[in-house]
Amino acid sequence: MLQSDQERIKVLLIEDDAAYAKLLQNRLGREVNPSIDLRSAQSLHTGLEEIGKFKPDVILLDLTLPDSSPKETVEAVKNISPKIPVVILSGLDNEDIAVKAVRGGVEDYLVKSEMEGKTLSRILKHAIERSRIKQDIDIANERLKQLSVTDPLTGLLNRRGIEQVLSREIQWSKREGSNLLVILLDLDDFKNVNDTFGHSAGDFVLTEVARRMKENLRTTDYIARIGGDEFIVLLPHARLAEGAHVGEKLREGISQAPVFLPSGNSVQITSSFGLSDTSNVPMSLDGLLEKVEEALRKSKKFGKNRVSTIPNIEEEKENHLGNKYLSIVNTFRGGDQLHVVAQPIWELGSHQVNGYEFLSRSDVEGFEMPDDFFEFCSANNILNIVDYFCYSNCVKASQSVPKEILRHINLFPSTLANTRVERLLDILPVAIPKFSYCIEISEQQIIGEPSYLVAPIKALKNEGLLIAVDTVGFGRSSFESLILLEPNFIKIDRRFIDGISHDDAKVRSFKRIMNVASGLGAEVIAEGIERREDYEILKTFKVTYGQGFLWGKPFLVNEHTNWDSL
């Protein structure tokens, strides 16, 4: 970019007429203050290459190149170098096109027959200056836009910012049929901090609280400060029990250690939380706050420093389920009334079974499917206990599978993080090689920064076990998990697979995930294949493995299962 009149202007001329290019070279070569450093290219293709090599301050562009139309020429140059000013060279017969190009973003145009050296030099200089001013204005406007949706103290979204996000997320959740949860919290007795230590100390506490909360959220979650010591969190694609778990993580993150003030004093901070879904509320922040504030008031009423929900899980236990509820809790806590089913994983090319995924089911009425009983267990703080029982049952059920067949067994991220790796390994039979097992971790269940899983997954890999990240592509999946965990398999969620044969958007999303898998050196397993046409298009994408109802539903596994006959 031009900094002073004494510097040289680097000009790239893209012009197919060699004689005219030579004429310009002679005219501009005599210019001083500033002097001109001219380089030329005779086609769009070579011109685009020179942009990267020469890094010009300004581009002189002819519209009648042999390898491109005028419109394509301008678009190609602006796409590859949007910040470099472009001046069009126009003949008398295409001046209208040049005018349209200026309206489309180029800086100026010149008629070839009316150009003198000094005129051209002045126009090039002014084009550079105008471009610089435009860029400064764009940067300033973008900064103003960011300031309009950002809380200046904490760097979080402000009320306006979260309103924009909320409108978009509610529409997405309705379209996708997924849940959207909201957490409202404020700091307990925060007025005492301001009164005792001053408002600057209070601002420091708010900034520290914001930092601690961000550390305990997923990259797909949103957090905003909407006033004073009040914050709101949006959790896309989360069920109520998962939201309660996130609320507890946030509560513990805030209260786990005192905040040390710059003055040397310290203050212990706690906070009260309200949690609700966004169903049956107006598409506005005020309407949502009115609903979730009821839950927040419950937390304040019953002693603060707690998470309350709507519907209130504790009240449902006490008022509606009573002894039956406690009986169900004890059943799951003891690992009772659980059984195992299996679903084959097929190699799509050879149509041979490559492995089986072993899954848990419950015999408790109303909680037969894993989504139901795992959510119940999570709400009652026994998820890891029950998940370990399920893991143990699946390992046992898989023992009679032929050794060359891979056994896929699921674990919740929290179970993996909170269970000693030795305890997981001790269950595996000595007679079966460790590489015959693949531990599946659901990407949907990873909450917050996934780095806490790196160590246990590395330990399992060191023992020879394989790792799969499951439900990838669920909503706006976090590829950070894939990069950090480096799985052997990536299982694409069924929502990206069902109907992919006639959905261009799913095809584009699927190809992006395939590119990520290729970059990580991971194999892809497509879940939820139910239609022959989806199966056929997946084969054209060179997907290695698949599973789904196209080949049958999961079947019960017991001591009488004859794997050779399947």
TrEMBL record:
Keyword entries, A-Z: Phosphoprotein
Residues with the 4-aspartylphosphate modification: 62
Keyword Phosphoprotein: yes
Organism: Candidatus Danuiimicrobium aquiferis
Residue ranges occupied by any EAL domain in the UniProt entry: 318-566
Gene3D superfamilies: 3.30.70.270, 3.40.50.2300, EAL domain (3.20.20.450)
Protein known as: Diguanylate cyclase
InterPro entries: CheY-like_superfamily, Cyclic-di-GMP_PDE-like, EAL_dom, EAL_sf, GGDEF_dom, Nucleotide_cyclase, Rev_trsase/Diguanyl_cyclase, Sig_transdc_resp-reg_receiver
Listed GO MF terms: cyclic-guanylate-specific phosphodiesterase activity
Positions of the Response regulatory domain: 10-127
Domain of life: Bacteria
UniProt entry tagged with the keyword Phosphoprotein: yes
Pfam families: EAL, GGDEF, Response_reg
Example of a GO biological process term: phosphorelay signal transduction system
Residue ranges occupied by any GGDEF domain in the UniProt entry: 178-312
Signal peptide bounds: none
SMART domains tied to this protein: EAL, GGDEF, REC
